Amino acid sequence: MKPLVNEFTWSVSRNGLFQECRRAYYYQYYGSWNGWDAGAPERTRRIYLLKNLKTLDMWGGTIVHDTIAEALRRYAIKAAPITAGELQATARQKLRAGWLEAVNGEWRTSPKKTNLAELYYGNGATLPPEQTERIKAKIYDCLRAFAESALLKQIQAATYLAWQPVDKLDSFLLDETKVWCAVDFAYTDPAGALRIIDWKTGGENEDALQLQLACYAFFAADKWRAKLENLRVYGVFLRDNAREKEYPLTPEILIEARERMLQSAAGMRGFLRSPLANEPLPEEEFPLCTRERTCARCNFRELCPGAPKAPAAAPAQV
Ligand code: SF4
Questions:
Q1: Which of 30, 121, 301, 309, when mutated, tests ligand 1's pocket best, judged by the most ligand atoms within 8 Å of its CB?
Q2: How far does the centroid of ligand 1 lie from the alpha carbon of residue 290, in Å?
Q3: Are 145 and 289 in the same domain?
Q4: Best mutation site among 25, 294, 309 for ligand 1 pocket (most ligand atoms within 8 Å of CB)
Q5: Looking at the structure, do residues 92 and 123 belong to the same domain, yes or no?
Q6: Whose CB among 25, 40, 54, 222 lies 3.0–4.6 Å from 59's, allowing a Cys bridge?
Q7: Which residues span the domain enclosing 219?
Q8: Which among 71, 64, 65, 241 is positioned nearest to 156, based on CA atoms?
Q9: 29 and 69: one domain?
Q10: What tens digit of pLDDT does each residue of 43-86 get?
Q11: Residue 306 lies in a domain
């Protein structure tokens, strides 16, 4: 098998971390590289392990997205009904399986297995019931809202042939830069418009979502040859009873989004010693964040010199 190459790419989440903390960005995209290899240096292995930590909210969001994607797939293949009860039962299984992975420490040997930040930086075995109940209730609420939504009825009313094959990581080129994105769902409505949907399990961040949806529009134009004037993009806020909000895609918005993406990529390349080889500057050249609140919830706080000196709890043993 050919060795993996750490090529330079861009994504909305990569941009988010780059804006938040340059040092965390370094750990996530460079320091962790090759950490999946059992023979990698101990520190690289550790950074890779931390990179794969998930907060309870991130974990919950993944469970909701996966459960919805699986249900839509089953519906497409055998018209399996989509009900809140069945979605919640599937999510319950995922919650149990993930929780066992986390508390049994399966991530020690397989870092991609569920590893919850709150447990890892806590006692490794338990969390206050109000935290676990909160996340369970959030997941169940989101799935109920999805199952009962008008949007689901519209999706089911469209024939499967009108659905786009989505929900997997894919990429397109923006100028010379490879851009990753994973569209949640897309289908052609009865009026012939291609609708792109982004399920949200958290609150609404208009700026970030506008950039995300513009990115999907570029992807649709590149991969599906969609005409931009024929695209409609939506955020669907599952916590808010599956409230749908359409975001505009005017030429001005798309030009601005493109500029932001290219400028962000240029900023990232500014931290490369060799842009051709995607070789970063030394770790110390990536500034530390100065916002304590950001450090307090950062995956890398265990090893970062910029993290608060007295963490709330000792890290779990690995
Ligand atoms: S602990 Fe703070 S400074 Fe260090 S990587 Fe995390 S956010 Fe950045």
A1: 301
A2: 8
A3: yes
A4: 294
A5: yes
A6: 54
A7: 159-249
A8: 71
A9: yes
A10: 999 999 999 999 999 999 999 999 999 999 999 988 899 999 99
A11: no
